[in-house]
Amino acid sequence: MPIDVCENCGGQYSWKWEEAFEKFGFNDSDGQVETNQVATVLIEAGYNVEVSGWGVHNTVIISIKKNNKELILHDSPDFMFGYDDPREYLPEEIVEMLDENL
Questions:
Q1: Which range of residues forms the domain containing residue 21?
Q2: Interior CA angle at 2 toward 41 and 20, to 5°?
Q3: What is the CA radius of gyration of the chain?
Q4: CA-closest candidate to residue 61, choices 92, 78, 31, 40
């Protein structure tokens, strides 16, 4: 779990990479949002990443592609994107890479 310095308050805080995929992540976007840091790690690993705001809620990663194949299956009956743990629906190689780098 990364520990960073808050840009707004100057204090330290911790966060999880999973929050970059959660509708209410980063304290429902009231905290410092680190979605772009997660996206950068994915991009540097060779993935195409799309980040988008979710209404007035968190900024989330909505698409991860490799070789033009979407790796987040939004229409799956097995999970609800933005609400379920991304460890359950992301490919194991992505989960392991994010665990190692963040």
A1: 3-101
A2: 55
A3: 13
A4: 40
The angle formed by the CA atoms of residues 15, 50 and 56, to the nearest 5 degrees, is: 60
Q: In angstroms, rounded to a whole number, what is the distance separating the alpha carbons of residues 2 and 19?
A: 12
φ and ψ at residue 28, rounded to 5 degrees:
55, 35
Structure tokens at 86: 């991304």
2, 15 in Cβ contact below 8 A?
Answer: yes
pLDDT tops 90 at residue 4? no
- Can you give the pLDDT at residue 1? 62
pLDDT value, residue 74:
84
Cross-strand bridge partners of residue 4:
13
User: Is the pTM value of this prediction over 0.85?
Assistant: yes
- Count Cβ atoms below 10 Å from residue 56 Cβ, excluding itself: 7
Q: Quote the number of domains for the chain.
A: 1
Q: Which two tokens stand for residue 17?
A: 């990479």
Render pLDDT for 25-70 as a digit per residue (tens, 0 to 9). 998 988 789 999 999 999 999 999 999 999 888 999 999 999 999 9
